[in-house]
Amino acid sequence: MPLDEYRRKRDPDRTPEPVPAEDPALTGPGSAFVIQQHHARSLHWDLRLERDGVLASWAVPKGLPPDQQTLRLAVRTEDHPMEYLEFSGEIPAGEYGAGQMTIWDRGHYETLKWNDAEVQFVLHGERTHGRYILLRKGKGPNQWLLRRGDPPERTDWRPLPRELSPMLAAPGELPPDDDQRRYEVRFGGTRVLVRVDGGRVELLEPDGAPAANRHPELAGLGRALGSTTALLDGEIDGNPPGLWITDLLHLDGRDCLDLPYRERRELAEGLPLTGQHWRLVPSYPGGGAAVLAAAAEQGLPSVVAKRADSRYLPGHRGEEWIEIRTGAEAAEPPPAPARRPSSGKRGVTSVPVAGRQVRLANPDKVLYPLVSLRKRDVMDYYLAVAEVMLPHLAGRPVTLRRWPDGVDAPSFFEKNVSRHVPSWVRTVRLATPGSAAGSEFIDYPLLDDAAGLAWVANLAALELHVPQWTVQDGSDPPERTDPDLLVFDLDPGEGCTIVDCARIAERVAAVLAEDDLPAYPRTSGGKGMQLYTPVRVERPEQTSEYARAVADRLAGEDPGKVIAVMAKQRRRGRVFIDWSQNNPVKTTVASYSLRGRHQPTVATPLTWDEVHACRRPTDLVFTAPDLPDRLAAHGDLLAPLLTDHHPLP
Question: Where is the composition biased (Basic and acidic residues) (predicted)?
Answer without folding.
Answer: 1-16
